[in-house]
Design a protein that fits this description.
Structural class of chain A: alpha/beta
Strand content of chain B: under 5%
Distance between the termini of chain B: 18 Å
CATH superfamily of the largest domain in chain A: Response regulator
Oligomer: heterodimer
Largest sheet of chain B: 2 strands, antiparallel
CATH architecture of chain B: Orthogonal Bundle
CATH class of chain B: Mainly Alpha
Helix content of chain B: over 70%
CATH architecture of the largest domain in chain A: 3-Layer(aba) Sandwich
Shape of chain A: elongated
Structural class of chain B: mainly alpha
Number of strands of chain B: 4
Number of helices of chain B: 15
Chain lengths: 339, 335
């Protein structure tokens, strides 16, 4: 037994020596060796909502590029929109003990206790784009309240009677119980409360489904011939609203304000007038924020969750006039970018 | 045994008013229509009525397809998955530069293959339709995600004007309504006037008896699922045309239950052999009136779902009083 232990110790020392040689190749400016060592051969796991839409694909692409550069192992557990499957994956992960988990919450409650448990078990956790009630090492992502404020302000500026609008707007919600929906809505309501001249003629939910959004919007538009603006809470669903506006032959007359991660189709829609205003939370930029947060959290020697911090995504309002060639990104841009 | 004979045997549990579920639902629809017409300004405007119909056209088309299957005593739970994945493939092929005709033919072919596979599983392997199609819906979605499309949302290419034109309007009538009408008419003609259409009723009424009589029951079952898959592809193309996007997440949504709702609400019993296209239209129109009225009233999401559920429940309860279970359904079960 002792012999085995001794052997293992020797092997470890040898491995340590080898690592030291690798380090020695790195110019030591006082931080670089620590930076590289803190990520080398580490295990990072990404738990998205699903891998089938733009945001997680961009983040994963960024992380993979970083993993290849810094030599950590990235694995992805795709629960495909099921929070049950996600919770099971988390439970398994806690016993697998990766070094870091990047978690995309489906809502504020469902993973909260598991995330706290993971931190207690010594796993570092970064949350992305929706923060759970549990606070972990870092949060990277959008502040949904801010998105709502921006959308409401854009709509008010375009539709207030003093700006020549009718003052009538409608809102297309996703699923009211989803926290990003709820937070964005509370921001919109707060902003509208200060503007009594704006009348909300309809506030309906379409369950993030473009087909339902289309049905609702086509009815609302016919019901309110002087409707000035539509606020929608997600670009994909709002394709339905824009189709209804086009059918009613009111492109430009009814202004549509939506939000999203800023992928190319969004800029196309702004250019062809389907969207009037677009609050972009730039998922490409988020990927950079995320990879930076990974580097930072891994360099820290503190216990998991000891010094939490947030990187709220700087959002920007895009219109046909403020849009530039590089305002939106494509997957190809992301694949070729450094992380 | 015919229905009347069964009733005579068991005796009516409720005074017979000559009401079928279809008429009940029709009256409910009329009642809602009247109430909305009086209370909601703008409800009666022809524009609004047309958009009411347009909004349920795709649901109606799927309902017709489901109706054909249910009349033959089957059920197609994979219909929405078939619709989503075959259309998504067509659109992503177009995005990748395939010409429109080949893309549409490939999508249609994919849908047809799905239908035939399901039909074979049900008719020849003799797996109950509910399990075969439920499993197939997962297989279709998984295969599609793995091999055909890798994004949930696929945008229709900017230059596909012909596709957008499919949801335009003719003389003020939105084309989706006309497509619905056309599909309904064809299905009606098929079910009423063709020999194969009548076979479907015979099989739905009593599968064993139909086989003994010499009806090619197995190939007919394959035909049913082939039809429903192909119609589903058509419905998918109309949706894509309307929204300029395809969202494959509908494959995992509860939309297929909305389709079943329309069929059952209209009075096509899940035990098969009963009803027709008219029932689907009545069910679809009721849902259309409800959704439209509730949108105008700006009711909340939860309340809308509650009302939809309650209406279905009322229709089913009334039906079970008016058309009590007979000997045959008692023996064979509902599906």
């Amino acid at each position: 037994m002792k012999g085995i232990l001794k052997g293992a110790l020797m092997a470890l020392t040898l491995a340590g020596g080898a690592a030291q040689i690798a380090q020695a190749e790195q110019f030591d400016d006082g931080l670089a060796p620590h930076y590289y060592n803190s990520l080398k051969d580490k295990k990072v796991v990404f738990l998205p909502l699903a891998m089938s839409f733009d945001l997680p694909q961009v983040w994963a692409e960024g992380m993979q590029t970083q993993a290849d550069r810094l030599g950590y192992e990235l694995s992805i557990r795709d629960p495909n929109w099921s929070s049950d499957v996600g919770a099971q994956a988390l439970t398994t992960l806690i016993s697998e003990k990766p070094d870091l988990m990047v978690v995309h919450n489906p809502d504020m409650q469902v993973y909260a206790r598991l995330l706290a448990r993971a931190q207690k078990a010594g796993i570092k956790v970064i949350q992305i784009n929706l923060k759970s009630v549990a606070t972990t090492d870092a949060y990277v992502g959008v502040n949904w309240y801010e998105v709502g404020e921006h959308q409401a302000t854009m709509a008010i500026n375009a539709c207030a009677p003093e700006a020549g609008g009718s003052g009538k707007i409608a809102i297309m919600q996703g699923t009211p119980t989803n926290p990003n929906n709820a937070i964005t809505m509370s921001a919109i309501e707060d902003v509208l409360a200060k503007h009594p001249e704006i009348e909300v003629v309809s506030s309906q939910s379409a369950d993030w489904d473009a087909t339902k959004a289309h049905s609702v919007a086509s009815t609302v538009i016919k019901q309110n011939p002087d409707l000035c603006g539509y606020i929608g809470l997600w670009e994909v669903m709002d394709a339905g609203v824009s189709a209804a506006i086009r059918e009613a032959d009111k492109v430009g007359e009814i202004k549509l304000f939506t939000n999203g991660g800023g992928q190319k189709p969004a800029c196309d829609s702004l250019a062809n007038g389907a969207f009037t205003g677009y609050v972009s939370y730039d998922a490409f930029g988020q990927a950079r924020d995320l990879t930076n947060a990974i580097a930072q959290v891994m360099q820290s020697d503190l216990a998991p969750g000891e010094a939490p911090y947030a990187l709220y995504t700087p959002i920007r309002d895009l219109t046909k006039d403020t849009m530039r060639d590089d305002s939106c990104w494509t997957m190809d841009d992301v694949a070729k970018a450094p992380f | 045994m015919t229905e009347t004979a069964a009733r005579k045997a068991t005796g009516p549990a409720w005074p017979r008013l000559g009401l079928t579920q279809e008429t009940i639902v029709f009256f409910i629809a009329i009642a809602f229509f009247a109430v909305f017409a009086v209370t909601l300004p703008g409800f009666l405007a022809s524009d609004n009525l047309l958009s009411l119909l347009q909004n349920v056209s795709v649901l109606g088309i799927l309902g017709v397809a489901m109706g054909i299957v249910v009349i033959g005593r089957g059920i197609d739970l994979a219909m929405v998955a078939t619709m989503a994945m075959s259309t998504a493939w067509t659109i992503s092929l177009m995005n990748a530069g395939t010409d429109a005709v080949s893309a549409v033919l490939l999508g249609l072919g994919f849908a047809a293959v799905i239908g035939i596979v399901m039909g074979i599983l049900i008719a020849y392997v003799e797996i109950p339709a509910i399990f075969a199609t439920l499993a197939m819906s997962t297989v279709i979605y998984g295969f599609g995600r793995l091999a055909l499309v890798d994004l949930d949302v696929i945008y229709v290419p900017e230059d596909a004007d012909w596709l957008r034109a499919l949801s335009g309007s003719v003389g003020g009538v939105p084309l989706p309504v006309i497509w619905f009408g056309l599909v309904a008419l064809l299905a009606y003609a098929f079910l009423r006037f063709t020999r194969r259409g009548r076979y479907i009723y015979a099989m739905g009424d009593n599968y064993e008896a139909a086989r003994i009589t010499g009806i090619p029951a197995r190939p007919m079952t394959v035909l049913q699922y082939l039809l429903s898959s192909v119609i589903a592809f058509g419905a998918g193309i109309i949706t894509a045309s309307l929204l300029a996007t395809v969202n494959i997440r509908v494959a995992q949504s509860t939309m297929v239950y909305d389709v079943i709702l329309v069929v059952v609400l209209g009075g096509i019993g899940l035990s098969g052999g009963k009803g027709g296209v008219r029932n689907v239209i009545v069910g679809t129109v009721l849902i259309g009136i409800l959704l439209n009225g509730m949108t105008i009233m700006d009711l909340s999401f939860t309340l809308q779902n509650l009302v939809k559920g309650a209406v279905l429940l009322v229709a089913i309860i009334v039906d079970s009083f008016v058309n009590p279970r007979d000997e045959q359904t008692a023996q064979q079960g509902d599906i």
